[in-house]
Amino acid sequence: MSLLATTLHLYLSAAAVLAPVLTAASDESLMQAYSAGDTRAFEVLYTRHRGPFWRYLTRLIGSSAEGEELFQDAWQRVIVARESYVSAGANAEATGSPFRAWLFRIGHNLAMDRLRHKNIAPESSMDDNVLQFPAHSDAEPEHMSISAEAHQRLMQSLAELPAEQREVVLLRAEGELSLEEIGVLTGHGRETVKSRLRYALAKLKQSLA
Amino acid sequence: MDTRDPKANASKAADELGRHQRVLDAYLAHSGSDPMPPPALDAKLLALAARAVNSTNTVPVGVETNFASGDANGFRSIKTNARARRRRWPFALAASVATIGFVAILARTNFQDTEGYGEPIYQASKYEVPGAAADQAPATAPLQEATLDSSREQSAAASMPGSADKAKMSHDRTIEQAIGRISAAPESPAPEPVDPETTDAAVARPIVPAAASAPASMPAEESDLAVSKLGTPSADLQAADTRSRRSSMDAAPAVNLAAENAVVETAEAPVPMSKTIEQLAAAEEEKAASTASNKVQASQAPQATMRSEPAQSGASAPLDDATKKDEFAPDAQSDAANPHAKTYTAIRVLRDSGEVMKAGAMLARFQKAYPQVQLPEDLAALAKAN
Fold first, then answer.
1. Angle between helices A190-208 and A179-186 (to 10 degrees)
2. Alpha helices of B114-200 — where are they, by DSSP H?
3. Which of A203, B31, B62, B265 is the most buried (most CB within 10 A)?
4. Mean pLDDT value of segment B62-75
5. Strand partners, B114
6. How far apart are CA A41 and CA A53, in angstroms?
7. Is residue A140 part of a domain?
8. Domains: count for chain A
9. Greater model confidence, B83 or A142
10. Domain limits for position A62
């Protein structure tokens, strides 16, 4: 009985020590740990990127249902290709190919394939689930109504942007990628990305004014 | 942008980026950072990731397809399918064996009982019974042929347009003629009880003395009817196995004739076969005598038939005019007012059953034998048509 209690105590102690370590670890080290069989590393990695990646896909496609499919497909590709990512990007952090850029590149490719397969342009309007503003329980009703209105205007302006400008804005805002990373991801030069971003933000500023 | 002043350009770019960043901050502030994937999707992806790591070494080939398509039960479904395949093979084997057996039975039945055109063909060698039944097997051959001819006539009559009633009438007339023939024939002794232990129907037939079952004075029209039922004598002679018949008749003529008569009483075709067989044999001998140059062979042929039918030894000779004339002679039971009623009926039966040529030939022989007789209207029309 004492042995069991000791083992449980040691396990809890190790988990308590390792949890902050995993949370503070970089994406690349978490990916390596997951490839080695540590599923907690994947949980941390997933929790870290799920929100921005979800918003990027749903707002790029304009449909929450298709965005969910793309989100699931992208993470499954991450799971399947974990070993190839580790072997090819062992020093990804040093070479400027971080996990976040890799994840968003997967999402970008899936979204482009989906749009090309359907032979349609990205939605110029977003469905209600994408436009819906998240409710905060501690927010005041007046502030919440104003924010909801601004959010709806912003989403509508975002949907009206050209696909290239919209994607650049989303990659910059949600993915927090640099202009160089966006250029590598989309296959365009840095200046092109910068120009698109400037035009897109100008339109969004008008909508928010 | 002014490229001549790097400092000014740098500050201007910083301002631009600052403005961009402010817009982005505003975007983030207004777009909300809370939109997240549904918890069910989170749980599914996390479970998928854990399963992929834990079952790396046990993943069968091709499972990545199901895995990538988001099927969380991909592993289990593949294993279930393999297990189901292993359990299905006995049923597949049983179904295959049953199918092959059924096809084999069908093929055997068709190829044994039919030949060429789908009609059952009698072959004496197939039905010969080794031992005691060997002598009786050929005797059943003409009977089966007669039965088949009768059925063919009825089917031919039935195939004529609007001939359902005709076929029924023909069948009824045939039965009536058989009844009249049986009642007119000399009484034969009752068939002996069949030994219940005997399973072979050919062996179980009663043995009746030849003299009692084969009357010497058979009405001429019956023989004509019998011949007509069997078709032309030459055609039937070609179909029959004459050698086996002759040898069997030489060996045990009484047994053959008795068996034939016993069968005739219960057969569907009400034709007395003993007379028919005798006439067929006689015609065969006639043909042999006319073609062969050996006089001895021609003289021996009638002797074989005389054993079984001494009273009609003359029947082995060619059918002359006198014989043809006698076949239409009224018997003792004929109506005095219309002594040729049976002949007319026989001709009508042939005509109604589709044997118009035979009816015409029979009518011509009758007219030749009795030129002074006034024919009924329908038969006169038939004679005129011929």
1. 110
2. 124-127, 140-159, 164-184
3. B31
4. 42
5. B120
6. 18
7. no
8. 1
9. B83
10. 18-135+147-208
Residue A4 lies in a domain: no
| DSSP-based three-state secondary structure for A200 | helix
**Cβ separation B30–A147 shorter than 8 A:** yes
Q: What ipTM was assigned to the predicted interfaces of this complex?
A: 0.74
Residue A78 located in a structural domain: yes
Phi first, then psi, for residue B230 (nearest 5°) are -90, 0
Determine the pLDDT at residue B87: 76
Among B23, B67, B70, select the one facing A204 at the smallest CB separation: B23
Nearest to B63 by CA among B48, B47, B78, B80: B78
Rounded mean pLDDT, B89-108? 91
Question: Which of B17, B25, B48, B53 to mutate: most A Cβ within 10 Å?
Answer: B53
Token pair belonging to B202: 């050919």
Tell which wins on pLDDT, B222 or A193: A193
Closest residue in B to A144 (Cα–Cα): B30
Q: Does residue A1 belong to any structural domain of this protein? A: no
| B45 to A151: CB separation less than 8 angstroms, yes or no | no
Residues contacting residue B327 through CB under 8 Å, at least 6 positions apart: B219, B220, B221, B223, B224, B365, B369
Taking CA–CA distances from B27, the nearest residue in chain A reads A154
What is chain A's Cα-based Rg? 20
Instruction: Name the maximum alpha-carbon separation found in chain B.
Output: 152
Among B50, B54, B68, the residue with its CB nearest the CB of A76 is B68
CB proximity B24 to A under 8 Å: yes
pLDDT of residue A53: 93
Count CB neighbours of A136 within 10 A.
12
Contact A73 B24 (CB under 8 A): no
A197 touches chain B (CB under 8 A): yes
**Digits of tens for pLDDT over chain A (209 positions)?**
455 556 555 555 555 555 556 677 888 888 888 888 888 999 999 999 998 999 899 888 888 888 899 999 999 999 988 888 766 655 555 555 588 888 999 999 999 888 887 766 555 556 655 555 454 445 555 555 556 777 778 888 888 888 889 889 889 888 888 888 899 888 899 899 999 988 988 888 887 77
The 10s digit of each residue's pLDDT in B236-259 is: 545 545 554 554 455 444 444 444
Q: How many CB atoms neighbour CB A66 within 10 A? A: 19
Residue B9 pLDDT > 70: no
Single-letter amino acid code for the residue at A40: R
Chain A touched by B45 (CB under 8 Å): yes
Residue to substitute from B3, B9, B19, B20, interface A, most A β-carbons within 10 A: B20
Please indicate if any CB of chain A lies within 8 Å of the CB of B51.
Answer: no
- pLDDT tens-digit series, residues B29-47: 666 556 788 888 889 899 9
pLDDT of residue A106: 92
Q: Which helix (H) or strand (E) holds B58?
A: none
CA separation, residue B108 to residues B86, B104, B282 (Å): 35, 6, 38
Q: Do B42 and A50 touch (CB under 8 A)?
A: yes
Distances (CA, A) of B71 to A106, B63, B68: 20, 10, 7
Name every residue whose Cβ is closer than 8 Å to that of residue B111 and which is 6 or more positions away in sequence. Answer: none
